[in-house]
Amino acid sequence: MAQKKTWQEKLHHSKPPQTKRIDFAFSDIPEGGLMFIATPEIIDAYIRNIPEGKQVGVKTMRNDLALEYGAEYTCPLTTGIFLRIVAEAAYEQYLETQSLENLTPFWRVIVPDSPLAKKLSFGQDFLVAQRKREHIN
């Protein structure tokens, strides 16, 4: 029986990114839209570039990534999945090191009362504490 992958393994072992034209309307993307599908590592790199004390919404992140990768939109479904992988992997790293140094600051994107925050395996307290520490409302 195969062992379950750790969040760190999920973060670093993913399919390559792709851009494709979709042939049906999907979420906020119209039929024929050019959609970028990122990777957990791309989401991680984006978040690491958000300055301390700043917050970027998921929609803004999706728009920024679409522009950067030559698409009109970024897939909302995979972005949510990959954002969770980034957060869980960062928290996994935190548990190992007990340090915030070199940790991906996922709390700068994930809002505490969001559906995603409620799915995090470690609860919302860590997220709330880090946002408070950086004075992010």
Compact summary:
With 137 residues, the protein is mostly helical. It has six helices and three strands; from the N terminus they run αββααβααα.
Layout of helices and strands:
Blueprint: H1 7-12, E1 18-21, E2 34-37, H2 40-48, H3 58-68, E3 73-74, H4 76-97, H5 115-119, H6 125-133
Parallel strand pairs: 2-3
Antiparallel strand pairs: 1-2
Key terms:
3-stranded mixed beta sheet; mainly alpha; 3 strands
Q: Can you offer a commentary on this structure?
A:
With 137 residues, the chain is mainly α. The chain has one domain. The protein is 45% helix and 7% strand. It has six helices and three strands, in the order H-E-E-H-H-E-H-H-H. The chain has helices at 7-12, 40-48, 58-68, 76-97, 115-119, 125-133; strands spanning 18-21, 34-37, 73-74. Helix 2 packs across helix 4. It starts with 6 loop residues before the first helix and ends with a helix. The relative contact order is 0.16.
Low-confidence runs: none
Helix coverage percent of residues? 40-55%
Q: What's the domain count?
A: 1
- Radius of gyration, in Å, reads 15 Å
Secondary structure category: mainly alpha
What is the first-to-last residue Cα distance?
Answer: 45 Å
Shape: globular
What characterizes the major β-sheet?
3 strands, mixed
Mean pLDDT, as a whole number? 96
Number of helices: 6
What sequence of helices (H) and strands (E) makes up the elements? HEEHHEHHH
Report the β-strand fraction as a percent range: 5-15%
Annotation, overall tally of beta strands? 3
Strand order of the largest sheet: 1-2-3
